[in-house]
Structures are given as C-alpha cells and as structure tokens.
Amino acid sequence: MTAPPATCVIKAQATKDGDVDTAAEPAARVLRAGGLVAFPTETVYGLGADATNAEAVARLYEAKGRPSFNPLIAHVIDAAAARALAHFDQAAERLAEAFWPGPLTLVLPRRADCPVAELATAGLDTIAVRVPSHPVARAILAAVGRPLVAPSANRSGHVSPTTAQHVLADLRGRIELIVDGGQTPMGLESTIVACLDAAMLLRPGALPRTQLERVVPLSEPTPAAGSTAHNDQAPVAPGQLASHYAPRARLRLNAQNIQAGEALLAFGPLAAEDADRAALVLNLSARGDLIEAAANLFSHLRALDAAGAATIAVMSVPHAGLGEAINDRLARAAAPRA
Ligand code: TXA
Ligand code: MG
Question: Backbone phi, then psi, for 2, in 5-degree steps?
C-alpha cells in the first residue's frame, strides 16, 4: 500500500440484535490487510491499526505525522484479552473490574509473549491497554479478533476529533476508512493510570480522579513517569523520559564507516566492505523505505543489542516523513544514561 489511499466514509448501523454493526466486517477486512480505519469510541475517534502488524503501525505514525513514536494504546474487547498482553497486579484487577469497558487506560508491564508490535509500545517494557465501551468500537474489535492500536484520529499537534467530519478534515487521503458513528459521547480522552509499583494517574481524562480513588489509592506521579502520557506534543529531552527504550550497547549515530567488531544497523544499500567488517548486520530497509524501517526499528535494535556487541553503528536515516520519528528514537536510545 504505497499510493495515498482514497478515504471512504461509511455510516455505522447497528443490526437488530444490537451486538453487530454493519460497518464492522468491512472495517475488520481493511484492518486485517494492514489498513487504517478511524472509528468512534466513547471518548474520541481513534485511528485504528492491527496492533500485531508492525508495518500497519508504522503507516499509522506516518498518517498522523507524529514527530516521535509515542507509545500507543492497545484496544481490546475485554479484560481477558488484555491479560494476554500485560501483567495485572491487584490494583489493575480492581480498576479493570470497576471501570471496563469504559474510558480508563491502564499502563502495565508488557508480557514476554505479548503479540503487539514493539513499534506500537515504542520498545518499552510497559503497554497501555483499554477496553472501550462504544458499541461501534466493540463491534469492530469483535470482528477483527486482534488488538487494535488507536491513537486519537487527528494529525499530530491538532486536537482530538469527536466527529467523523473532524477526522476527515485531518486525515482525508491518508487513511483507508472512516466509520461514522456520529458524535462521541464523552469528547475527552481516556484517563490513564499506571499500575507498575503503585497506581499513578498519568493523564487526567474522561474518568474523574475521585472515582478512581474510590477503588484504589493513587500515588503522586514522579515527573519522569508522567512525562510520556501527559502531553504527546511535549518536547521531552533524551534521557529525561524515565522509560524510553535504552539498549545496553552504545549507539554510534550517522556512522560513515564501520569499525571491526561493531554491530551495524544499516539503512539502504550497504557497501560489501562494511558488511564484512561488522560483527552482525541488520538492515532497517535495504530498499530505503521509511515505513519498513520504522516497522523494524525496535526489534532490530533489540536483536543487535542481544548479540552482545559493545557498540552499534547506525547508518544515517533521512529526516523526511517517518525519518524524523526514527531519528528521534535513535537519538534517545543513544543518549547517555544517568
Ligand atoms: O481516549 C483515548 O484514550 C483515545 C481513544 C481513541 O481510545 N486514544 C488516545 O490515544 O488518546 P493517544 O495515542 O492520542 O494517547 C495515548 C497516550 C499518549 O500520551 C502516550 O504517551 C500514552 O498514552 N502512553 C501509551 N503507552 C504508554 C506507556 N507504556 N507508558 C506511558 N504512557 C503511555
Ligand atoms: Mg492524542
């Protein structure tokens, strides 16, 4: 899928039994093929992609024009599906029991066997999960049978959309399908709570703090822990973010020539001498495709790091399109640690 998609809009329409929506099957077909579908949730419209398909996730970042790969929320049909992605402590269990389905997102430790693409969680060892209550979102999740990542369906830097018209204004020609389910009932994004060591409010949202506090005590967030969720436009300096992906190996960015024994993260065509000199080479995209490169970024970094080289040389990646986000993440991964 390289040509800009013609964006279709279809109306959501509940069938008589109320459980199924006539838009769900067409939406699921597009999603299973790696396409992008905007759909209503009870909070705001989400831009959905198959969370298990790294290329689909990369296309989603590109469609949104995100300057960096912010981690995304995995939307699932119920708590059982969420437990296949993440580890729940007692606080998480109680919050899920009290507020799912509904406008609550939980940030939890990612399971080792979690099928969500690493790009979607920005290489972190945590994952944000949410069980939406909107019937159209639920019908699509049921039809697709996989977790869907769904950031708010706006261009990066714009406000979250609460109608299909808002989505169209921002994303026409950038996504395959919009399911129009009218205005979203809440109009404010979900509340995000991390249940890691203690329960912490990371983003105030549609579920008020007072309701959460009736179920679990909340600790005050440390500035670093809150910085990913508070504002996805906030510029966060490398190293300031407590939880950004950090390889053990040192990263040498914009490497022009490869030193013997270095692992090499390549991009585009590769000189034979460089390939020979490197201890191990993985190419983000031999054909120089930025979507393919984004899809491979975190898994390649992890694999090179696991191979044990002291230094990973990284060839330069052009700054255009998704290249900006790729370079942002590489810079963070290369930043000196405290
Ligand atoms: O209401 C909502 O939550 C909407 C609807 C569509 O579900 N979605 C939404 O997604 O607001 P998005 O991507 O616009 O915002 C998700 C926020 C981002 O600020 C991101 O940094 C944070 O969640 N987030 C995701 N995973 C995280 C993690 N592992 N740790 C901390 N923050 C995380
Ligand atoms: Mg957003």
Answer: -110, -35
Instruction: Identify the H or E element spanning 191.
Output: strand 191-195
Beta bridge partners of 178: 9, 38
Q: Tokens in use for 137?
A: 């979102």
DSSP per-residue codes, 62-109: HHHT-SS----EEE-SSHHHHHTTB---HHHHHHHHHH-SSSEEEEEE
Tell me what the pLDDT averaged over the chain comes to: 89
Query: What is the per-residue pLDDT across 88-97, written as a single tens digit (0 to 9) for each?
Result: 999 999 999 9
The Cα 36–Cα 260 span in angstroms is 42
Query: Are the C-beta atoms of 189 and 44 separated by less than 8 Å?
Result: yes
Which of these, 241, 139, 128, 121, lies nearest to 189 by C-alpha position? 128
**CATH 3.90.870.10 domain span(s) along the chain:** 8-213
Token couple for 24: 């769900």
Atom of ligand 1 nearest to the CA of 73: 25
> What would the two tokens of residue 2 be?
């390289």
CATH for 250-334? 3.40.50.11030
State both tokens at 121.
């969680």
According to CATH, the superfamily of the domain at 8-213 is DHBP synthase (3.90.870.10)
Report the percent of the chain where pLDDT is more than 90.
Answer: 72
In this structure, the residues whose C-beta lies within 6 A of any atom of ligand 1 are 41, 43-44, 46, 70-73, 105, 107, 121, 124, 126-128, 130, 150-152, 189-190, 192, 202, 228-229, 232
> pLDDT tens for residues 31-56?
999 999 999 999 999 999 999 999 99
Ligand number, closest to the Cα atom of 155? 2
- Tell me the percentage of the chain whose pLDDT exceeds 70: 91
Q: CATH 3.40.50.11030 residue ranges in the chain? A: 250-334
pLDDT in tens, 131-150: 999 999 999 999 999 999 99
pTM to 2 decimals? 0.87
